[in-house]
Design brief:
By secondary structure, the chain is mostly helical. The chain is 79% helix and 0% strand. The radius of gyration is 20 Å and the shape is globular. Keywords: Membrane, Transmembrane, Transmembrane helix.
Length: 391
């Protein structure tokens, strides 16, 4: 059968599973992951390992568009509105998760590479899941106003943490001496290079609007530039996530029509994201689960503890009201797209035994977070008295 046949199976399975998941009021991303597990090699084997290997272009493309959509949150007007308190809270809750996961897993004697990479992956959250909860219950108030910019910004800190940590992990694996150059300076240089190229592509993308007026043409250029960005990043060995995030950030700040075009792009990318999550679920190696069971449990609790403590500390330092500092950490529990994307990236950048374990832990944790996370967010907003629809 051709690759298109198996892509159709993935899409159908994902859509059908959403009908079942809706009965118990869980997010669609959970349905896609479960559908992938069921049709993948470890269960019914409707889509085998050979077929999954041919889907790499889909996952790379999806990663680029996920990062591009995060760039939309970095409009200068939005950053001014966020202010210092939200930025400080974002840094502290992200660093808190990274430090807690790394230190606790290392203290328990787990493999150093796994500890470093899981720490890096712990920083990001799931803006989409949080936003859906806020919209569903028409939440509004101090907690909501702080929550939305924080969950958008900490995906950026997560991408930066991943870029640094993967360089450190590769240095350890390759037996290289850990120096300031190869652990900090070189990763930072690659980060700056990716951001600079992405910003340049974003500028060029905005310039195309002078010559192409229709929404369909502008949307086509957006799609082409994101794919170009992913290709350049792969060619130069840079982070396609950071490059495409910078591309999106520069584009939304230079184009007055960017928001309308991005809505069109979002419609175009919905099936792509669905495929990405189904494929990610299908790649879950259930045979590895018993080996990573304990570290997976530790990751889930350590990540939440780090985020809660970091958010509480940031709220205390910036003199936020109790409804913010006491509830924000609970609302930061969801984790999905960006973390899965980085785990998928780790599968291609690190040796297979590490990549599979990292991806298995993250996918398993995502299933937990996507079930419990939205409920925790809703309850946090409810405690803050900011839910204004029927709960």
């Amino acid at each position: 059968m051709s690759a298109l046949f198996y892509i159709a199976i993935c899409m159908a399975a994902g859509l059908l599973m959403t009908r079942l998941i809706r009965l118990i009021h869980l997010p669609n991303v959970t349905a896609y992951l479960i559908a992938g597990v069921l049709i993948g090699p470890c269960v019914f084997n409707l889509v085998g390992s050979e077929e999954l290997a041919t889907f790499s272009v889909i996952t790379e493309c999806a990663l680029g568009f996920i990062a591009f959509s995060i760039g939309d949150e970095f409009k200068i007007s939005t950053l001014k509105e966020i202010g210092g308190p939200a930025l400080l809270i974002t840094v502290l809750e992200s660093v808190g998760a990274v430090v807690c996961v790394m230190s606790i897993t290392m203290a328990l004697g787990f493999d150093k590479i796994l500890c470093i990479m899981l720490g890096a992956l712990s920083a990001s959250t799931a803006p989409a899941a949080t936003l859906l909860v806020v919209r569903q219950y028409k939440a509004d108030g101090p907690l909501t106003k702080m929550l939305l910019p924080v969950v958008a910004a900490d995906d950026a800190t997560g991408l930066i943490a991943y870029s640094i940590c993967v360089s450190i992990a590769l240095s350890i694996i390759n037996g290289e001496t850990l120096t300031a150059a190869n652990t900090v300076l070189l990763p930072l240089l690659h980060i700056i290079e990716a951001l600079a190229i992405g910003a340049g592509l974003g500028t060029l993308l905005a310039l195309t609007h002078r010559f192409f007026r229709s929404h369909s043409n502008r949307m086509s250029f957006c799609i082409a530039f994101v794919m170009l960005g992913v290709g350049i990043a792969d060619w130069l060995g840079l982070s396609n996530l950071l490059l495409c995030m910078a591309l999106g950030a520069m584009y939304v700040n230079l184009s007055n029509d960017a928001e309308k075009i991005l809505k069109c792009v979002d419609d175009w990318t919905y099936p792509l994201f669905m495929l990405f999550f189904v494929i990610s679920g299908a790649q879950l190696n259930l045979a590895v689960l018993p080996k990573v069971g304990l570290i997976g449990i530790v990751y889930i609790f350590a990540r939440f503890g780090g985020k809660f403590l970091g958010a509480w500390l940031g709220g205390t330092i910036t003199h936020q009201p109790p409804v913010v500092k006491d509830n924000l950490g609970w609302a930061l529990m969801p984790q999905a797209g960006v973390a899965i994307g980085m785990a998928t990236l780790a599968l291609s950048q690190l040796p297979l035994e590490y990549g599979q374990q990292i991806q298995t832990v993250i996918l398993s944790a995502t299933l937990v977070y996507e079930v419990v996370g939205p409920i925790a967010t809703k309850n946090a907003l409810k405690r803050a008295g900011e839910i204004h629809a029927n709960a």
